[in-house]
């Protein structure tokens, strides 16, 4: 019995041990694999929906900036930044734009800018839930409502210079209460033509460089009424920041005044301002299309029609409107369209006519700080006050010194968008690295040129500059247009200062690749600070801009286009072979890659699922940072981590940014630990 009992106990213990062993295996089995979405991609670009409605009947080219693109110099002139915009685009022929764009993910606002007539610029737009919106008509109405703009006449008691006449009252920001109730719509082609002459801020604006014939010594503007007519004065634009006043006067055609005391000046616009620059409280009293019906002063009263035998001239009082007192002051200089009335007899006005000979526009210059003399207005743009003239009878006017408008359009114009940033690579892959992310650091810039009319890409220009080499190996660098067929690229031209890759075999793209692939160099040590420019000629009318937008994180967009159209990589130890590539996390390798490296070392890629360059530490092999450059200026540049110092230590906020999938500390690169980055 005892023996049988012992056998039974032994069997029970064995079963218990066996069961415990099974339970232990269940409790300590390997953790489940992460899904692809559980790995962060280590890029800093995001999608933003842009919804614009300018309310215009013509196409507008616009730009979006990370910061206000306009500023004022010490003389009050508007200066436009030379920085590239975050995005540059064109509306349809109704002034409407709605599309996805790619922006640096750390931005919280954008500035909308356009130099096209009829647009209010710049406008600060908040990014809300990945979207910015702007309805210009609603914006204008809200500004007017906020400022209490009434069309009715009030007993304001606002003052104006003695000896002047006024057409009516104005409100606190200088907007006339006698504006026509309906803004004037101007033909789109005419708007293009007028804009061509009165150049907005940015670039060279000297009239003498563009249209010297408009300001020749023999040019004297005359606008003579030969038949009775009514005249409407329509605001187009003002690029000035001064609080100027604009008006007119008449005189018998055969008695041109030699002194202003011989005429009666009439104020038409107490304050002209369309540029929203640094002060939203003082900008925007007038908008394109605002119209004033001019009246003829017969010596005792105003009448609607201007009689035959008189001429009309213009004046601008510099910095005359006082927003504090709401009065028009006459203690500033006044400039006239009649040159003999100006201090130096300089040009202050340009008037232009259409092909039918009708005067349609004039522009005035208010600057006094030109070199070599203050009144050398030939260097001005004459865009400080630009107006459209509308005569009830266009044939009622004859002119002198009025040139014909150039015939310009938006046809065949190309615009481009520029995307720049930093690429940073770790070359220990697939082994565990030190993750100092400085084994190769490259600045990149992509310019995508497209037709304004069709929005189709014409060419792409990519620029790469290797800025830092922290590697022990001899590494190469290249990139692939993953997802773009070789047949869709007509030609690729590389300017490299004589540096070429052996892997290109003398071709314009690497042979044997499924997609266009360009290897720029095989040895980063010989390429540091060299510029590599790649021009890609694209098959015409084939692609929209989004097909080439780099690092674009947009799920809807990815259903149609490849996310990897700029797929940069390093070739690790390029001197020993071509088969070992390190890419940005989750970006695919090229067909030259030896796939046996995946799943070795610390790499946990799953090529069969299309998941590449992820590791068990969730650290990057390649990193992309949008919108910045490599340098030593804290808060502006990407500062290179010190050798063998993990980027987690060099940038204390990097870890939180990565673990939050970019939601926290999007500006992590602005706050390095100065003791762990290269600062000089």
TrEMBL record:
<protein>
    <submittedName>
        <fullName>LruC domain-containing protein</fullName>
    </submittedName>
</protein>
<feature type="domain" description="DUF4114">
    <location>
        <begin position="306"/>
        <end position="391"/>
    </location>
</feature>
<feature type="domain" description="DUF4842">
    <location>
        <begin position="456"/>
        <end position="669"/>
    </location>
</feature>
<dbReference type="Pfam" id="PF16130">
    <property type="entry name" value="DUF4842"/>
</dbReference>
<dbReference type="InterPro" id="IPR031025">
    <property type="entry name" value="LruC_dom"/>
</dbReference>
<dbReference type="Pfam" id="PF13448">
    <property type="entry name" value="DUF4114"/>
</dbReference>
<dbReference type="InterPro" id="IPR032295">
    <property type="entry name" value="DUF4842"/>
</dbReference>
<dbReference type="InterPro" id="IPR025193">
    <property type="entry name" value="DUF4114"/>
</dbReference>
């Amino acid at each position: 019995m005892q023996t049988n009992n012992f056998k039974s106990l032994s069997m029970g213990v064995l079963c218990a041990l066996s069961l415990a062993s099974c339970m232990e295996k269940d409790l300590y089995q390997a953790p489940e694999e992460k899904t692809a979405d559980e790995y962060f991609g280590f890029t800093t670009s995001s999608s933003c929906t842009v919804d614009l409605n300018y309310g215009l009947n013509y196409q507008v080219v616009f730009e979006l900036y990370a910061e206000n693109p306009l500023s004022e110099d010490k003389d009050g002139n508007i200066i436009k930044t030379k920085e590239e915009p975050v995005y540059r685009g064109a509306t349809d022929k109704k002034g409407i734009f709605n599309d996805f764009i790619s922006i640096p993910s750390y931005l919280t606002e954008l500035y909308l800018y356009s130099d096209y007539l009829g647009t209010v610029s710049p406008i600060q737009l908040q990014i809300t839930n990945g979207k910015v919106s702007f309805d210009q008509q609603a914006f204008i109405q809200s500004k007017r409502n906020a400022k209490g703009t009434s069309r009715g006449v009030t007993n304001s008691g606002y003052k104006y210079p003695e000896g002047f006449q006024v057409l009516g009252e104005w409100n606190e920001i200088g907007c006339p209460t006698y504006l026509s109730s309906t803004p004037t719509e101007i033909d789109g082609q005419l708007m293009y033509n007028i804009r061509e002459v009165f150049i907005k801020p940015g670039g060279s604006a000297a009239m003498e460089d563009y249209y010297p014939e408009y300001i020749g010594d023999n040019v004297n503007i005359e606008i003579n009424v030969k038949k009775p007519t009514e005249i409407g004065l329509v605001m187009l634009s003002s690029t000035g920041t001064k609080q100027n006043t604009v008006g007119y006067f008449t005189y018998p055609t055969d008695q041109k005044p030699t002194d202003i005391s011989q005429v009666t000046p009439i104020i038409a616009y107490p304050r002209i301002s369309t540029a929203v620059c640094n002060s939203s409280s003082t900008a925007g009293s007038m908008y394109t299309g605002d119209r004033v019906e001019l009246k003829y002063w017969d010596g005792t009263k105003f009448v609607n029609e201007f009689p035959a035998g008189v001429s009309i001239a213009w004046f601008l009082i510099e910095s005359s409107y006082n927003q504090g007192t709401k009065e028009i002051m006459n203690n500033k200089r006044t400039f006239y369209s009649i040159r003999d009335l100006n201090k130096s007899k300089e040009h202050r006005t340009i008037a232009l006519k259409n092909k039918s000979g009708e005067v349609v526009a004039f522009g005035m210059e208010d600057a006094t700080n030109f070199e070599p003399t203050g009144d050398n207005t030939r260097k001005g743009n004459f865009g400080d006050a630009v107006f459209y003239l509308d005569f009830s009878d266009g044939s009622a006017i004859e002119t002198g010194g009025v040139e014909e408008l150039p015939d310009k359009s938006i046809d065949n114009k190309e615009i481009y968008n520029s995307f720049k940033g930093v690429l940073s690579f770790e070359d220990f892959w697939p082994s565990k690295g030190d993750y100092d992310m400085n084994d190769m650091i490259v600045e990149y810039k992509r310019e995508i040129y497209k037709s304004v009319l069709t929005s189709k890409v014409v060419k792409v220009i990519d620029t790469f500059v290797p800025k830092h080499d922290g590697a022990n190996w001899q590494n190469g660098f290249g990139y692939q247009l993953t997802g773009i067929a070789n047949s869709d690229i007509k030609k690729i031209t590389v300017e490299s200062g004589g540096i070429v890759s052996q892997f290109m075999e003398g071709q314009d793209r690497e042979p044997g690749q499924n997609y266009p692939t360009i290897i720029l160099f095989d040895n980063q040590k010989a390429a540091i600070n060299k510029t590599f420019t790649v021009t890609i000629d694209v098959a015409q009318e084939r692609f929209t801009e989004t097909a080439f937008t780099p690092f674009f994180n947009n799920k809807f967009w990815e259903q149609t286009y490849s996310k990897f159209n700029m797929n940069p990589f390093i070739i690790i130890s390029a001197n020993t072979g071509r088969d070992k590539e390190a890419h940005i996390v989750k970006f695919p390798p090229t067909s030259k890659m030896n796939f046996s490296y995946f799943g070795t070392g610390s790499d946990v890629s799953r090529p069969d699922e299309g998941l590449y360059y992820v590791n068990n530490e969730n650290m990057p092999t390649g990193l992309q940072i949008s919108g910045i450059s490599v340098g030593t200026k804290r808060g502006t540049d990407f500062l290179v981590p010190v050798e063998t110092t993990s980027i987690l230590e060099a940038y204390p906020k990097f870890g939180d940014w990565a673990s939050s999938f970019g939601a926290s500390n999007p500006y992590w690169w602005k706050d390095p630990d100065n003791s762990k980055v290269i600062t000089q």
